[in-house]
Design goal:
- The protein is mainly α.
- It has two domains: about 150 residues; about 180 residues.
- The chain is built from 17 helices and four strands.
- The strands form two sheets. It has a two-stranded antiparallel sheet. It has a two-stranded antiparallel ribbon with strand order 3-4.
- Helix 3 crosses helix 7, helix 9 packs across helix 13 and helix 11 crosses helix 13.
- It is globular.
- The relative contact order is 0.10.
Length: about 350
């Protein structure tokens, strides 16, 4: 890793190479990985060069170029400019960013960590790639409306550790609530795109259903051990589930590359998140026609891999009986898997996905 950073330094402008702090760059590289920046900001022009379209309920938003190109990237941004974008959702010219860039979560990241990310991004090779920033239809194309949105749904401010919690818990909270921006996907949004009060309780996302991350025993991770959560984040695979869809990118680009202590801190924090109001499943008689039809379809199409009792095959096919995916209130993910299949992420810990 250090060899890579030094190579990047050699490719950087001489003035920056002379003043850069290698420790800061190394930390910034790791933090950019925690934030999964590369997933959204990589398109046909290359890593961090932007151009990937992000689907939102309001239209398509193109992720910008984060390389230090002076004309099309952030080459002319100062460290203060970058911090303003991360903490306040504003560009250097004062124009507002849309929350597809999760500044409502990044606002909690410390100034020191933001500075380190900036230092790392400055070491990237400049890529000239102009990205169209204005792709939303009217009236969402009027960025000044974000002033009102921010008044309603944005609370700026850095993370404050809780004195009644352990250092590990606070580290997990800092990662989940900040750079990890887990709630940006795993919290349902209202009609205006603001986060609902059901934090981490899951919600629809780009044709999937991001699952519940709270301590809910049926729909969340309440029955998962800390070690199971760590294994899922590190490898994308456990007996209970496989990372697929948008989460496959999160594991592949981010959590699989994080340190063991940070993964453990995240698991400890998530296990402590309160569940929402219980949603017991509706009873359905065994002789109900829908149950009979479902059983027949399962036996014909699913049983060979997932077994008659739904317990799957360890290391190959996940458990379906009591599965978090099956128990979610939203069926989007389940329907996608059944109708079209999905490919799980391949990692060093689970090379076949």
């Amino acid at each position: 890793m250090r060899g890579l950073v030094f190579a990047l330094l050699l490719a950087a402008p001489p003035a920056f190479a002379d003043s850069a702090d290698v420790t800061s760059i190394l930390n910034g590289r790791y933090l950019a990985t925690v934030g999964d920046c590369i997933a959204c900001h990589t398109g046909p022009a290359g890593q961090y060069a932007g151009g990937r379209g992000i689907e939102t309920p309001f239209g398509l938003i193109n992720a910008p170029n984060l390389t230090p190109d002076a004309d099309t990237g952030i080459g002319n941004w100062t460290e203060a400019d970058f911090a303003r974008a991360m903490h306040d959702g504003q560009r250097p010219d004062g124009s507002r960013l849309y929350p597809a860039f999760p500044y409502p979560w990044y606002t909690r990241v410390s100034g020191r960590d933001v500075a380190d990310i900036y230092a790392f991004l400055r070491t990237l090779p400049p890529v000239r790639n102009a990205v169209d920033r204005d792709t939303l239809p009217f009236p969402f194309s009027i960025r000044t409306i974000m002033r009102g949105w921010n008044m309603l749904f944005f609370t700026p401010g850095r993370f404050e550790p809780r004195g009644d919690r352990s250092e590990e818990w606070n580290r997990g909270a800092y990662l989940v609530e900040g750079l990890g921006h887990c709630g940006a996907c795993h919290t349902a949004r209202n009609a205006l795109g603001g986060d609902s009060s059901a934090t981490y309780q899951g919600g629809p996302l780009q044709g999937w259903f991001a699952p519940n991350l709270t301590g809910d025993a049926r729909q969340g991770v309440g029955n998962w051990s800390v070690e199971e959560i760590i294994a899922y984040l590190r490898t994308g695979a456990t007996a209970r589930s496989r990372a697929s869809g948008p989460m496959a990118e999160v594991v592949g680009y981010s959590t699989s590359l994080m340190t063991e202590p940070d993964l453990r801190a995240i698991a400890v924090y998530l296990k402590d998140q309160p569940a929402g109001a219980p949603m017991p499943p509706a009873a359905l008689a065994a002789d109900d026609p829908a149950m009979r039809a479902g059983e027949a379809l399962y036996v014909d199409n699913c049983m060979a891999c997932h077994r008659r009792d739904g317990q799957g095959v360890a290391g190959l096919f996940p458990v379906l009986a009591g599965s978090q995916v099956v128990q979610q209130p939203g069926s989007d993910t389940l329907l996608r898997i059944v109708a079209g299949g999905v490919r799980a992420v391949a990692t060093d810990g689970a090379p076949t996905g």
